[in-house]
Amino acid sequence: MARKDLLLGAVAASLLLSSIAAPAFAAKGEGRHGERGAAMIERLDANKDGKVSLDEFKTNISATFETFDADSNGQVTKDEIKARRDAFKDARKAVRDAADADKATAREALQAAAPFMLPGAGRMFDRADTDKNGTLSEAEVLASAEKIFERRDTNKDGAIDTADARPMKGKGHHGKGGGEERAERMLKRLDTNNDGKVSQDEMLAGATQTFERFDADKNGEVAKAEVDAKREAFRDARKAFREVKATDGEARQAAREALRDARMDRMGARMFERADADKNGTLTKAEMETAANAMFKQRDSNGDGFITADEVGKRHKK
After folding, report:
1. 3-state DSSP assignment of residue 283
2. How far is it, in rounded angstroms, from Cα 191 to Cα 199?
3. Is residue 131's pLDDT more than 90?
4. Domain containing 76 — which CATH number?
5. Contact partners, residue 173, CB within 8 Å, separation at least 6
6. Which residues of 66-99 are buried (b: 16+ CB within 10 A; e: fewer)?
7. Strand-pair category, 198-199 with 52-53
8. Is 159 exposed, middle or buried (0-12, 13-18, 19+ CB in 10 A)?
C-alpha cells in the first residue's frame, strides 16, 4: 500500500475528508461519528443518567486542563499545548508504523497521550485569552468550554445526550452546511467537464495544479519552507477576511475567495509529512502523482473509474 497520501491540498483533502472533530467533545452525526458521540457521552456521564450536565462537562475539562498544565502553575502556555499535541501525533504515528505484534502496546501509548484537545487552544487561543497575558487560565478554558456546551446542547435542555448527537441543521462542521457542503464544492471544482463525477485524470490535474502552487521556486520539488509559506499565507488571508467589514460586500467577497484558496493550500500543507514517504524533506511531482493515483483508487469504492458525490468523504479499507 502506498503511504504517500499526498500533498494534494484540499484538492484531495477537502474532497475526501468531510468531517472535522469538534474540540474536546463528541463529533456529531450518525454511523461511526454517532458511535463516537455516544461513547463520549458515556465517558463523561459521571452519574450514569444517560446525559452529560454542564457540571460533568466542566469537571472533565478541568481534568484536561491539569493534564496540559505540565508545570502545574495554573496557566497553560502555547508551548505546553504544542508539546501535548506533538506527543499525541508521535503516538498516533507509532500506531500506524507498528508491526502487528506491537500494535496493542502502541495503542496503549496513544491512549496515554490523550487528551490532546483543550477548549480555547489552537486558533481560538487569542480569543480565549481574555486577559491577554499570553496564557490560558483554568477559568478562561472553562469559559470556552461553556460555549462549546451551549452549542452542543441543541435542544437547550441543559444537558447533552444522544438527541444532541444527531446531525445539526444549517452550517457547521458536520451536517449539510459544513464538511459535506465543502466536500461537494471541492468535487465541483475538480469536475472540470461538469459531468457530475471526478475521473482519475481530473483528480491528477487538480493535484498537479496544487503542486505547482506550492512549488514557488519552480524547481520541480516542494520543500518544507514552501509548505510553511502556504500556512502563513492562510493565516494572513484569514486575518484579512476578519478585518473586512460585513457591509463592504465586494471587498468581503474577494477576501472570502482568497481565504478559500488559502484554506485549500493549508490543508495540503497538513499532508506534507505523510506524503514525504522517504522523509527527505521534499516532495517531487512523481511522488505527488503516485499518491494522488493511490488515493483515487482508494476512494473509487465501486471501481468504476470515477469518484461521485456518494463516495465523497467515505473511508474504505485498502
Report:
1. strand
2. 8
3. yes
4. 1.10.238
5. 19, 20, 22, 179
6. eebbeeeeebbbeebbeebbebbeebbebbeebe
7. unpaired
8. buried
Higher pLDDT, 185 or 266: 185
Q: Give the pLDDT score at 11.
A: 35
- Contact between 6 and 275 under an 8 Å Cβ cutoff? The reply is yes
CB atoms within 10 A of CB 31: 7
Name the nearest CA neighbour of 209 among 14, 10, 33: 10
Distance separating alpha carbons of residues 123 and 17, to the nearest angstrom? 20
Q: How far apart are CA 311 and CA 112, in angstroms?
A: 34
Of the three residues 164, 196, 223, the one that is the final residue of a domain is 164
**pLDDT exceeds cutoff 50 at 29:** no
Whether omega for the bond prior to residue 23 falls within 30 degrees of 0, making it cis, is: no
Q: How far apart are CA 90 and CA 97, in angstroms?
A: 10
> Is the separation of the CB atoms in 253 and 246 below 8 Å?
no
Task: Give the global pTM.
Answer: 0.47
Most confident of 75-89, 90-104, 170-184, 289-303: 75-89
Range of the domain at 207: 9-15+178-311
How many domains, the chain? Answer: 2
Asked whether the CA dihedral 160, 165, 169, 171 is positive or negative, the reply is positive
pLDDT band at 260 (very low <50, low <70, confident <90, very high): low
